[in-house]
């Protein structure tokens, strides 16, 4: 696709949906050129569309339309709006699918039918509406709506909105980043990253659920209020369920309380759950969704950096037991993940920085570009301030870091949902990290514990001759420059060793670690020499 100019977004929708009006507004806001397929066709044909229709008939028109649209998809770099019927043509559907596969955004502009019909009638010059215009419009809507939903990868409702408001909404949607998660054993779903993506909640939930349980913690009240409003506006019956914050919310007692409520309130298999909050809250909500009636629809709205890059993707759900973290759980994928960058603005500095531990880990095991970005922006990241974040250049940097980290996670998960081989590489730094969390009674945050765990794994890799001292030092300097801890000395080796034996990766009484063979290339280490395992621990105690 090199050298090909692609539209920034393609707008589709019914006649009268406001594709041209809203498209022009968006193009102006984003300082991009705007093109309307119908104008391009008239220009090529040398006559108005109604006249062309009259003279050559619809099939000929559709052929010309297809040629024009496919050319524009490969040689126009602004906002491009299509005629109402264009997405019904198979060759155009194919062209749009290739454009989406190449990272494009096809936006279905969903207007209120009454508003759209009035606008379509006012406009005149629409050969498809000859006869009883309203009846024709409704018939076309019935045929086209399901196709438009299938063809588009972004939907924007404009009911009752001015073109300016609709355009701003559309701009947020175009600016978002989408990571498509697929795999042999999973229903594909999208992780949407951007400011304002929470507004797609109803779109991801779909029309089937009547009741929605909104599971969240107290500190994210502002975001849960917004989610509740969006859900109610879309006609869902919302049941609010508040759970304790952080790891205290991930217990069988909390899960049991929610199961009781779902039972009392008549939740059926066709209802849904929305989990909103940090990693612990989304883990628990996913576990409840996976177990209620053997699995109901579930949407994930992570509000912390850690939850966005870690807990939100990969379908791991779970609760803790007194014996350890995440020992009870299931693999269950969400219908979608909405990582709304707006939520990061309310994060305290230390909770934001904790999330960088998992970001850096993804760089160490697969994507060195992540490490380069962390190095280049270490000072700004370390001094993160939520109150200025959304208006700063840092927002784009963080959005890209989230996108890259989720992509690393999606790669490992799609090949291996159930954690037999490849997926275990995501546990780099976690064997010691989980032991630290447990011995600190979860007063240490997960990302901080993982940062120390990565240094430990690097020390072990070095002791066994896989990597050189420079790469170990690099772990320490990079993590330290972000404000993450790189040492820990608050527990005895015996306690740590006992917990490592209980780690989910352990097989029988043999320890298993993920270490680095080289930067970006993790390997499994089975039953390493006991003295090296202990010596690496001594080295992170300094």
SSE order and pairing:
Blueprint: E1 9-12, H1 19-29, E2 34-36, H2 37-45, H3 49-74, E3 79-81, H4 90-101, E4 106-110, H5 113-123, H6 133-151, E5 154-157, H7 163-175, E6 177-183, E7 186-194, H8 201-205, E8 211-217, H9 221-233, E9 237-243, H10 252-264, E10 272-277, H11 279-291, E11 297-302, H12 305-311, E12 316-321, E13 324-331, E14 336-340, H13 349-365, H14 368-376, H15 378-382, H16 386-389, H17 394-415, H18 430-439, H19 446-463, H20 469-481, H21 493-501, E15 512-518, E16 521-526, H22 530-540
Parallel strand pairs: 1-3, 1-4, 2-3, 4-5, 7-14, 8-9, 8-10, 10-11, 11-14
Antiparallel strand pairs: 6-7, 12-13, 15-16
Notes on the protein architecture:
The protein has 542 residues and is of the alpha/beta class. It has 3 domains: 9-172, P-loop containing nucleotide triphosphate hydrolases (Rossmann fold, 3-Layer(aba) Sandwich), CATH 3.40.50.300; 177-347, Rossmann fold; 420-540, Dehydroquinate synthase-like - alpha domain (Dehydroquinate synthase-like, alpha domain). The protein has 22 helices and 16 strands. It has helices at 19-29, 37-45, 49-74, 90-101, 113-123, 133-151, 163-175, 201-205, 221-233, 252-264, 279-291, 305-311, 349-365, 368-376, 378-382, 386-389, 394-415, 430-439, 446-463, 469-481, 493-501, 530-540, and strands at 9-12, 34-36, 79-81, 106-110, 154-157, 177-183, 186-194, 211-217, 237-243, 272-277, 297-302, 316-321, 324-331, 336-340, 512-518, 521-526. The strands form 4 sheets. It has a 7-stranded mixed beta sheet, with helices on both faces. It has a 5-stranded parallel beta sheet with strand order 2-3-1-4-5, with helices on both faces. A two-stranded antiparallel sheet has the order 12-13. Helix 9 links the parallel strand 8 and strand 9. The longest helix is centred in the N-terminal third of the chain and has 26 residues, at 49-74. The relative contact order is 0.07. ATP binds at residues 16-21, 126, 161.
